[in-house]
Design goal:
By secondary structure, the protein is mostly helical. The chain has five helices and no strands.
Length: 170
Amino acid sequence: MASKQMAEALNKQLNAELYSAYLYWSMAAYFEAESFAGFAHWMEIQAQEEMGHAVKFYRYAVSSGSCVEFEAIAKPEAKFASPLAVFEATLKHEKYVTSCIHNLVELARGEKDYATEMFLQWFVTEQVEEEANASKLVHDLNMVKDAPGGMFMMDRQLGQRQASASSSSE
C-alpha cells in the first residue's frame, strides 16, 4: 500500500496527465482553426496518449490502495502566435512533466517504495521520447520558418502519425 504522501503525489500526477490531454486538445483546436489538419491530427494523437498515461496512473493508484481524487482541470492556453509557438510550448510542457516524473521517482526511492519506482520507469523512458519528438518538431519548424511549401509538407507529414501501442491504457 502506498504511503499517504505517495498517494497524494500519484493523484497529483494523474491530474497533471489529464491537464496534458486537455492542453493538447486545445492545441489541436488551434491548428484546426488555422487549417492545419495534419498538425491538429498530431496533437489529437498526443492528447490520446496523455489520456492513456492518466489511465495508467489511475489503475496503479487504485491497485496500490490509494484513494483517487480528481481535481479541477485548469483552462489551457488556446491562442498561439504560430505553429512554432505551439511546439515550443509543447516542449516546455514536456520538460515540466519530465521533472514531475523525476520527482515521483525520487519520492519513491526515498520511501523505499520499489513497486512504485518500477511503475514509474516506463514514464521515465516515455518522457525521453516525448521531449525528443517535441524538440525535433521545434527544430524542423525553425528550419521551415513560414515557407508555405515547408509548412504544407510538415502538415502532411504530421497527419500521418499513428497512435502508439505503448500509450494504450492497458
